[in-house]
Amino acid sequence: MEDSSGLPPLRGPATVKGMLAGKVAIITGASRGIGAAAATAFAQAGAKVVLAARDEEALRRVADGIDGTGSVAVSVPTDVTDPRSVEKLVEFALEKFHRLDLAFNNAGGGHMPAPLAELDVEQFDQALGANARGTFLSMKYEIPAMLKTGGGSIVNMSSTAGLQGVNGIAGYVAGKHAVIGLTKAAAMDYAKKNVRVNAVAPGPILTERTVGVISPDQAMFAVPVGRIGNREEVAAVAVWLCSDLSSFVTGAVVPVDGGRLAGVSFSRPGVTPAVTPSISDQRKPSKVRENRW
Ligand SMILES: NC(=O)c1ccc[n+]([C@@H]2O[C@H](COP(=O)([O-])OP(=O)(O)OC[C@H]3O[C@@H](n4cnc5c(N)ncnc54)[C@H](OP(=O)(O)O)[C@@H]3O)[C@@H](O)[C@H]2O)c1
């Protein structure tokens, strides 16, 4: 029923149940960590999921786990830095499901920490390859596939290190900044063709890669909410960005960081700092300063 404002009626509360029903999604980097959690979340939201990563065994285990719950998941061993491999991944999705609606380009990785001038050229190239080249190649083949059936939604994996500098990981920082640039450029190129492109910028998140690296003390120091994030908390944002609930959002970068990028935290008389200990406390142990996400 239309009210006196002349606006169309409200469509009722948004619900996550079935929010990706009928959609086909590619998720890269799905063999473990955030990607494996996203594979499960996309499937629970009703999507058929095509899982990609290099580790064939691990990928199959994730797909089998999802299949066991009655959802549809297939695994396609893929190296996102190899154009032919990514092209085959997208071809597989089209052959199997006849459409591609969604992609979470999550594959990526870092390198051993070193000051920029001491960073091996190979390690720099590797970080750019996994993050920037991999994201470019994924979108290069996904977008034409999505256009065949009227459009789609893509979420690229950046990091808080894609929005600010972090000491000791110049290659990773450059790669994750590049992911944001690619996201915005693609969003502009395809806005009128019904392909939305957004990025998430998480950190720090507890995964196989970070377990034992980021202690609860570090999280208390670095994250305003005082804890490290969970894989599912990133997956949920990726599901939302892929869903029609975010239909007017494109070219955006969404931090999933417990408030880490919101600002700096100082000790002031009578005011509790958002992070503990305060960054104004110069006595913090040096390892605490060496954050790697
Ligand atoms: N954990 C965090 O705190 C955090 C914070 C911000 C951003 N991120 C980003 O989130 C993503 C997932 O992180 P995570 O912590 O879950 O890391 P992870 O456990 O190391 O997972 C990385 C995933 O990417 C895949 N991958 C890496 N290189 C690939 C390639 N060339 N081709 C295909 N797949 C490749 C890996 O699979 P294979 O080895 O089987 O290929 C794996 O599935 C990464 O892009 C990471 O940079 C993580």
What does this structure look like?
The chain is of the alpha/beta class and 293 residues long. It has a single domain (24-289), classed as Rossmann fold, CATH 3.40.50.720. Helix content is 38%, strand content 13%. The protein has 8 helices and 7 strands; from the N terminus they run βαβαβαβαβαβααβα. The protein has helices at residues 33-44, 56-67, 83-97, 121-148, 170-190, 216-222, 231-242, 286-289; strands at residues 24-28, 48-53, 73-77, 102-105, 152-157, 195-202, 253-256. A 7-stranded parallel β-sheet has the order 3-2-1-4-5-6-7, sandwiched between helices. Strand 1 (24-28), helix 1 and strand 2 (48-53) form a beta-alpha-beta unit. Helix 1 (33-44) packs across helix 7 (231-242). The chain is globular, with a radius of gyration of 20 Å. Bound molecules: NADP nicotinamide-adenine-dinucleotide phosphate (NAP). Residues 28-35, 53-55, 58, 78-81, 106-109, 130, 134, 157, 159, 202-205, 207-210, 293 line the site of NADP nicotinamide-adenine-dinucleotide phosphate.
